[in-house]
Amino acid sequence: MIINSYHSHDFQQLDPAVRQQYAEFLHQHLDQYGDSLPAILTCFDYVMNHGGWAFTLNVNEALAGVCVFNETHMNGYIPENILVYIAVDTQHRGKGLGKSLIEEALKHVKGDVALHVEANNPAKKLYEKLGFTNPYLEMRLKR
Predict the structure, then answer these.
(1) Beta pairing class for 2-7 and 113-115
(2) Which of 21, 55, 83, 131 could connect to 67 by a Cys-Cys bridge, CB 3.0–4.6 Å?
């Protein structure tokens, strides 16, 4: 298992075809909890232009996981980072790879971290084991 980390500038330097591969991986493996491919690519643009991190996990040289954080630049009143996406290849789930990927990512990402997870998403248990809590009720106005 190899985990690679890419901060904004490093991620920007990657071949666009490689970034596209990472986006397609997320689109495929986020299942019903995912976003459209254009939305994922917009998140990647944010990482490159405004700050963030991308992490990849390889098993036997094959891509097995991707994790993406956006930096908020709102220290002190909003968490400094948002865990936007994490996905592990379906054939590797249940082996602790998602936990390893997040734990390694949290070593690089500085400051507080927020994430959104649907109540019925099985990953919620992993987030709770890692120390994430749900002290707030989120409300949205959709336009």
Answers:
(1) unpaired
(2) 55
* CA distances to 31, 49, 96, 110, 113 from 38, in Å: 16, 16, 29, 27, 24
Residue ranges per domain, the chain? 2-129
Backbone angles phi, psi at 127, to 5 degrees: -60, -40
Please enumerate in sequence order all residues whose Cβ is within 8 A of that of 43, keeping only pairs 6 or more positions apart, or say none.
35, 68, 70, 84, 85
Here the tokens at position 49 are 């232009």
Strands 62-71 and 81-88: antiparallel
Residue 93, pLDDT score = 86
Chain Cα centroid distance, residue 59: 18
- Tell me, what's the pLDDT at 84? 96
pLDDT in tens, 59-70: 999 999 999 999
Helix axes 37-50, 16-29, angle to 10 degrees: 130
- What is the rounded CA–CA span in Å between residue 36 and residue 40? 6
